[in-house]
Fold each of these.
Amino acid sequence: MNCNKDSALDLIRKVGVILGDIDISDDDDDDNDKLFEDPPPKEECPICFLPMPYANIGICGVIYHPCCGKIICTGCVSASVKEMREGTIKPWCALCRVPVKRTQKEQMKRYEERMKLMDAEAYFDLGNRYKAGDSLPQDLNKALELWNRAAELGSIKAHYELGLRLYTGVGGEKDKKKAIQHYKLAAIGGHERARHWFGTIEMSNGNINHAMKHFMIAAKSGEEKSLKKVGVGYKAGLITKDEYANTLRSYQVSVDEMKSKQREEAKVLLA
């Protein structure tokens, strides 16, 4: 399919939301060099040893356990809960075998102990609970405070959430420059949705080549939204047949590696 760059951009814009122009060319050169490198391997569930996505991309969820500070996939958690209900195992953590918390006070004490150990995910997860009002008063300001600390300690999921809030202004401050930095760190760390977002930003600025690179990297990590963008880019003549085929194969490999019967069953239960 032959088309000029302007018509190709129009075609791509039909399948995505344009977030507004922002110049990201003045950012740190070292970070820019890292931005197009392959992301690090995904973290594995410590029980089933299958890779887990950082973003909610429809494959499986993850649950943080403040008793041991581990993140476990919803497939393994769901399987353990099922056994508890059947009486075949005691009501304890699927990994460390610490009894399931009885009260909110006990749960908060576990978070506090993990935070004393500078556990970034403890800060991030507690922030999520304040954001959602999950057994705690809903408090976005408190969530932002905890996410900021989590980001300082290296949580790429916290960087993603902060980037989202700063870009949209939800929760107070609106600062697209700061948002870009948070999203960049999340993307470099392997966050699939942050990478997709970067592609959308570049697309809105007319930087089509960079946008397609971001979409291909995200798609290879299992991000279906980015795969659709890559498909549109291929039809528009913006990437080669080999690039599209390689992206499609890598996407399928990534998704297959994250799938399991337990995770599929958990998706149905949690839907």
Amino acid sequence: MIVDYVKKHSLEPRLERKYFLPAYQNYILKPYIKLASSGLKEIYYQRKINNIYYDTNNLSFFKDNLIGSRDRLKVRLRWYGNTQMINPNLEIKMKQADLIYKLVVPYNDNLSLQIMELFKKLRPSVNNSYYRRYYLSADKKVRLTVDTDIQFGRIMSPKTVVELKYAPEDEDLASKLIHSFPLSLQKNSKYVDGIASIQV
């Protein structure tokens, strides 16, 4: 079963908290990141992320997300940079209750049978791209990412998305980090936004 396979082979499960603000207000984040009590430090250069999402013919992954199903999957091809698709990874992201499991494998001829069985039942549903900056707290327990210039095909999103990513036992540290930011916790999915944008 794909759920059991993802849990067995994924990275360590984590929690994710998402926040967004209007894209035209990006400038307000910089001083808060600089002055964060947790000592946020940029750990990677800004880079462009490109995704092609896959879903079933009836968009069951999309619908599971909309209704807030306890268990849901997200499947995508991801690559980096401003060029054509080079060395993409296949990512399967699974959410069970609040825990996120993420499996990342190079997309090549050596994919496992379990993944191939899942993948051949899916079709491309939407693509997106955005620029991401990466930050890490001084204790290396909480990551913060900022996604800007989010685009679905030719449609530009009006949002900037801020995400916190951390282990379940570090909930208090993450809450303390984000407390000083002028942001409110939001339910947000770029995949759902993308599907919505092409259905308008």
